[in-house]
Each structure stands twice: as C-alpha cells, then as structure tokens.
Amino acid sequence: MKRSNRLVILTEFFMENPRKHIQLPFFVDLCETTKSSISEDLDIIDNVFKTQGLGYLERTTGAGGGVKYIPEISLEKSSQFIEELRKELQDASRILPGGYLYMSDILGNPKLVREIGRIFASRFSKLDIDVVVTVATKGIPLAYAVASFLEVPVVIVRRDPKVTEGSSVSINYVSGSSRKIQTMVLPKRSLKEGSNVCIIDDFMKAGGTINGMISLLSEFNAHVKAIGVLAEADDEEEERIVTNYTSLIKITDLDLIHKKIEVLAGNFLEDVL
Amino acid sequence: MKRSNRLVILTEFFMENPRKHIQLPFFVDLCETTKSSISEDLDIIDNVFKTQGLGYLERTTGAGGGVKYIPEISLEKSSQFIEELRKELQDASRILPGGYLYMSDILGNPKLVREIGRIFASRFSKLDIDVVVTVATKGIPLAYAVASFLEVPVVIVRRDPKVTEGSSVSINYVSGSSRKIQTMVLPKRSLKEGSNVCIIDDFMKAGGTINGMISLLSEFNAHVKAIGVLAEADDEEEERIVTNYTSLIKITDLDLIHKKIEVLAGNFLEDVL
C-alpha cells in the first residue's frame, strides 16, 4: 500500500481508537507494508498531531512494544473554546427561574459536548482514570465525551432506583439548593471496588450533588481522582462543600430581578497560570 | 506543506467534522497549498474511505461548491458488529427481574455506543434528519452517538418536569409494561416546529414509551422520519403498538424461571436482504 493511503488509514484508526495500545505488526498487516515504513508513517503522524495541538503518539520499544495515541488539546485552543462558550452563555435570555441557566442547547450539541470532553480528558490525561461517573441526566453526554477520550467506561448514578439493574447501593444526601433529602443509587455490578474515578457534571452550585456522589463512591472504595464541571455558580446562601474541582465556566452574578448575568472563565485556566 | 502532512490534517478534520460543508479555499489556507493539490488529496482520502467502508467525500462544484464527509459503515462491518453484540448479550446472567436484560455495561462503553451510533446514522443517512430525540435516561448516550454522525443536535424528553428548562409541553401515556399512566415533558424552546426527527432508544417492549414520544412530538408538528432501538423484546401479553422501527438486536425467548434467553439479530439486517 502506498504511503498516502497508509497515512489516511492510520490517522483514521488513531482518531477512532484513542489510548489503545497497538503493536506494530498489526499495522504492518493492515497496511500490507514493512515495519520500517510504518515507523516512518508514525513519525509523520506524531509530528502533525503535535504541531496541530491534537496530542501525540506514545511509543514503547522492546517486546510487547507499540504505539498509543494520546489525544490532547492545546491550552491555546482550550482558552479560545472557553472564551467562545463564555460569550455564548452571557445572555440574559438564558436566565431561568430559581437562578438556573438555560444550557440545554449547548449540552444538546454533540460537537460542543465533544470539545468539552476533549478539554477535560486532556487535563485529566495522566491520572490513571478507570471510569467516569456522572449523575442522571444532564451530565451524561459530557461524561461520555470525556470517557471516549480517556478510553474508559461511564457509570451513571441515578436518583430513582430502577428495577432493571439488579441489586444496588444507595445513599441519602441533602441537596444544596432545595435543602431536601434526596437519594442516589448505583447498581452493585456497575463499579469495581477501588476504581480511580473522574466525576463529571454539567452544573455545580453549593456542590451537594457532587458531594453525594463522593459519599456514594466511598461505599465502593473508589478513589475520586478528578472532578470536572462545565459551569459553577456562586450560591450566596451556602458555602461550597466541594473544593477540589475543575470548572470551565463560572457564573458569578446572576440577577433574577434585573435579568443580568455575568459569566467568567472557570478555574480551568487559573490552574495553569 | 507536504502531501503526507496534509493527508493527516485533512483526515483528522473530516473525522471530527462529519457532514460539514467545507469550501476548498478553507483547506488551501489550512494546508498552505494549491487548490489542485487539495483536490488530489481529497481523491486519495475519498478512495481510502470507500475501500475501508468508512463512507465517502461528497463533492459539489460551482460557486459555493466544496466537500463534505458522509460517514457510513459497510453492511459487512455492521453485520459483524451485530453478531458480536448478539453473542455478548446471549448470557443468562444478564437476565434481570421483570424480564429485562442487563445492558449497562454495553451502554456504558463509549466505543461500543459510538459504533451503534455509526450503524444507525449510516442507515438514516439520507432522511434529512434535523434532530435526534430520546427519552431519559438510558437512550441518551446512543442518541448522542447517532447525532454526532448526522451532525445534528439531541433533544431529551424527560419523565420529570425540571424547573430549570422554562415552559414545556407535557403528555400522559400508558406504559406498556407497568400499565401505569406516566408523563413525558419537552421544554418548548428545545424543538423547532416541523422538525424531521429520529427517535433513538435502548430498549423497546410493547412500544408504549416510543408511542408516547410520537404523541409528544406531534404537539411540535414534528415528522418522525426514523425510529432506532438497540434491542427489542417480545412482550407476550401485549401487541406491539409501534411497527415502523429499526432494531439491531431482538430478544425472543427470555425465560425467567429457567434462566434462559435467546438473542437474535434485529430487523436492521432483514431490511436489506
């Protein structure tokens, strides 16, 4: 097979299989060529990926050696994306009763969701995450986007125990905004004991929901390695109970009466400055 | 820029931007090259995509002309995937009380979910779908996977009205399995009148839930162009009320007492034979 064809096949393969360890003989067969040609192809692809801020190819030598595509996004591209999102969200018509923000159009756009996933996955790339955990419903697409770049499964915590999932562990927690006692459930067979977990959600006020997830996950002896939320909002009535998190967007000044809103970049960018 | 580098950049771009119409000058700038070079690159990529069963590049000429990547998956690859899924699901330990099947591990795997999305999107490719609609919770990842290949947004019907979404339309429907009256809600601003809709869900028994979605969507004057379900199951007590759907998997013989199950390929493959 000619180099030009090989480069298309290999690039497509890496895009569809992030973080998958591949031994070179697999590519030698796939492309009907020699090991040294594949090796040169990988150099070209690695170089372009790096130049374009798309990540890199991680190569290992020796027995069982091979190559793995680690997707990343450059800080420059992340900042640019966050800035566009910030402008988009800073629109008074998005204010909803109760001090919420209408974000369903953003969360309903697979392309934007995928970019958000890429940004979080890039930040959490070296944390040896085993599984991404979210709570139904709105965080689900974000969780899948993050997981697809980390090449790990998603586990969904539910607020209603469904009969279809077998035996489960549940906890009660106090919701920050409504002050009500709520329930969270996770089927027993859905999460291995001692997993390294990344929690993803769309929105965080005081952090009651995420704190509930942390409690539930401790029942599975999970290690919460990272917490990513798309948007955080100050809750004047309550102090934040979750502190170690990464947010892309921060809503600081939501004024229901005067229909005004201020949207800033989240701590994602602060952390690296 | 050299051809080898251009091919990596262009392939990556098409993978990340399915169905996006791009005029050639964009690529000329991106790759710092000439229009005729880009044109040759596109020939190479189109050719590899077709040979590998990944879809094709749709090119239009004249003013405003350009190129668009239409992702598809070959029938051969689809059949192979469905056969593997069928074997995986035909496992008696998956049987849950109530005649349900444990599929959370499949639905929690972003790679598998993406493949399922690619298969449905490929089948529904020419239907001019404007939006993918699903109902919370389990169908959500599948809906996003389908939508990402069709380059359209996702709208999620909820069973509980959430305060955070503004005014909404709701309907009551009778659930096939529980015979209970249930509610479905869709925020008014989430769906444009007269949209071409593709309904996606994970599981269908008698079809009460999907029928409920159809009723709700008729309130928005939507045109239901396609219905895709991952798995359908016979419900002995009830006749199916939804008939025009596409399923990948069919569960025919779920025997709770003897812990036996039979899983067949769905009508996806029948339709083309």
From TrEMBL, chains A, B:
It comes from the Bacteria. Residues 105-259 form the Phosphoribosyltransferase domain. Signal peptide: none annotated. One of its GO terms (molecular function) is DNA binding. Homodimer. Belongs to the purine/pyrimidine phosphoribosyltransferase family. PurR subfamily. This is Pur operon repressor. It comes from Oceanobacillus halophilus.
